[in-house]
Specification:
The protein is mostly helical and 258 residues long. The protein has 15 helices and no strands.
Length: 258
């Protein structure tokens, strides 16, 4: 899951900046982990130790209240609400990569991704975005070809993945919806030549850069068999001990790249 976290950290300084280039410093001084990382770690802890998604999201929000959450999530978590708020935002997709790494069958991935999403994002688009992302991670981990991943995501979830990044990039704008960011993030992976290239592709669209790089990064980590050591080391160094400990425990438990 470090692939998602590194994508979040790298993309954090580009959110709302409208970057339209792949030529940027990978880790700049201002790069930091955001809510994408915090809630991904919460999902990882649930998969490791059990518990309730809503309780864990509340807990992690109060432990890291300044990570840049969306307004609806802040209202939900700050009041420790239990009922979901029918969101179609990409928050359900940004936090789901651990599901794709931990589950052993595609059917289990689909069930668990729904569970992780619907405590907040019970809108059909919110659930679809989470399931599509987790399925892509799982299929990548299982060494499916990019063509097979594309075919499955298009057939199962109805996302159109036919456009090229060069066609998307000029008019693409900041979009926090699952339907307006998850397909583009998956395309960023599909067109990549390496883990790092997938991150650069996602950021270069000029949209919700940290979340899109987080989504693309998790899939890329699974497909390329890990994250380059220098990127992994730098990303882990920007986590505190608590977050880093869960990430390392997750890697040890599930036998995946940290």
């Amino acid at each position: 899951m470090i692939g998602s976290i590194a994508g979040d950290i790298i993309g954090s300084v580009h959110e709302r900046a409208g970057a339209k280039t792949k030529d940027f410093t990978l880790f700049s001084e201002g790069c930091r982990f955001t809510d994408d990382t915090v809630l991904s770690v919460a999902v990882a802890e649930k998969l490791l130790r059990g518990g309730d998604y809503a309780d864990l999201f509340h807990h992690y929000f109060h432990a890291y209240p300044n990570a840049g959450y969306g307004g609806s999530f802040v209202r939900w978590a700050s009041q420790r609400k239990c009922a979901p708020y029918n969101s179609w935002g990409n928050g359900s997709a940004m936090r789901v990569s651990p599901v794709g790494f931990a589950c052993e069958t595609l059917e289990e991935v689909m069930r668990e991704a729904r569970k992780s999403a619907e405590v907040t994002h019970n809108h059909p688009e919110g659930i679809r975005g989470a399931q599509a992302t987790a399925a892509a991670v799982f299929l990548a981990r299982c060494r499916r070809t990019k063509a097979q991943i594309r075919e499955h995501i298009e057939g199962e979830f109805g996302y159109d993945l036919s456009a090229r990044l060069e066609e998307i990039r000029p008019a693409y704008a900041f979009d926090v919806s699952c339907q307006g960011s998850v397909p583009q993030s998956i395309i960023a992976f599909l067109e990549s030549e390496s883990y790092e290239d997938a991150i650069r592709n996602a950021v270069s669209l000029g949209g919700d850069a940290d979340t899109m790089a987080c989504i693309a990064g998790g899939i890329a980590e699974a497909w390329y068999g890990g994250v380059p050591q220098a990127i992994r080391k730098e990303a882990l160094s920007r986590l505190d001990g608590r977050l880093r400990g869960v990430v390392e425990e997750f890697a040890a438990r599930f036998g995946r790249s940290a």
